[in-house]
Design goal:
The protein has a single domain, classed as minor pseudopilin epsh fold (3-Layer(bab) Sandwich). Helices cover 32% and strands 26% of the residues. The protein contains three helices and three strands; from the N terminus they run H-H-E-E-E-H. It has a three-stranded antiparallel β-sheet with strand order 2-1-3, with helices on one face. Strand 1 and strand 2 form a beta hairpin. It is globular, with a radius of gyration of 13 Å.
Length: 90
């Protein structure tokens, strides 16, 4: 997801993202927004649920596994993950 990164997903993951978020760009926007709006330390997750993919957030050491959801992708929004490079600008 970083600039000049690996590009858009393909195959089954791309199909699930498109069916759940309408497009990869919509998914990217929603995923980044979830990270920017997470209060305090925590995580943003792309999870697989029986109804498809969804984005969820957890605080501190929370995990969607306790809700029976299957993590596909996570973004660390604890300060140690970004502070040296970006200060308080997640």
């Amino acid at each position: 997801m970083k600039p000049n990164g690996g590009g858009e997903p393909t195959g089954k993951v791309a199909e699930l993202i498109n069916s759940s978020f309408s497009s990869y760009q919509n998914f990217r926007t929603e995923f980044a927004n979830a990270g920017n709006t997470q209060f305090g330390s925590g995580w943003v997750w792309l999870v697989l649920t029986p109804s498809g993919l969804k984005i969820t957030k957890t605080s501190n050491a929370g995990t969607p596994l306790t809700d029976g959801e299957v993590p596909i992708l996570t973004m660390d929004v604890w300060e140690h993950a970004y502070y040296l490079n970006y200060k308080n600008m997640r």
